[in-house]
Amino acid sequence: VRILVTNDDGVNAPGIFALRSAAAGFGEVTVVAPDTEQSGVAHSITLVQPLRIRKVHHGEQFFGYGINGAPADCVKLACREILPEPPELLLSGINLGSNVAIDILYSGTVAAAIEGAVLNIPSIAFSLAETEEPDFEEAALVVHDLLQSLLLDGLPACRLLNVNMPALPRSRIKGIRVTHQSRTSYNERYERRVDPWGRSYYWITGELTRDFEQEPDSDLRALRDGYVSITPLHHDLTHYQAVPELRKRLAADWGKGEGRVAREG
Ligand code: MN
Fold first, then answer.
1. Is 50 a residue whose pLDDT tops 90?
2. Conformational region of residue 40, where left means phi above 0, alpha means psi within -120 to 50, and beta covers everything else
């Protein structure tokens, strides 16, 4: 299996070392990742700056390619320029910190996997729900076991999976749950501080509200209960249930064509 490994924490982040070694047993691995941390850039791409590909070595050892762009740039460049053939599997992570609930929309880790799915590559995002003292070696054991299960009968039919791992040793993880994205939101606020010149600056902060207690099958709840969470995702954001009603309502004012708005009169 040709495997592309990427992330949003940067090509030198410990999480990508762990993911690369976990993937190594399953095929031929190529690392293509951002030069610098890109957490929170979501699915952005670089349009107004030139992109450069840099070979990254650790000691004498070639490690992979670093790019001065976003995770989605890395996936595109890997598939279109770096790899002689498209990868058969894309793995993104292992992210420092979980990517659950609304964070999925901001995540560069998940965006890289979405980009892979857009390019027809089965793609999996991996995140570890720990930011203080992450044990990526233990997380890599989970990745390894999960890949083994998923690849057993060929690559998964669902092209986009979001995996979150609790901050527990492999032996203490209770199991795996197939989950949905929690609807929990943030108690969000900005911390205002003052720089040495008397000007204000801001840091976003806050914590997730606790209403995932009411969501037994959610990603957040699985983590809290000590399970690995795996959520199949889809990048089509259309709200299909809303389509018929909106068509009907617009048809009244906009005439025939079931509410399709014509470009000219
Ligand atoms: Mn990150």
1. yes
2. left
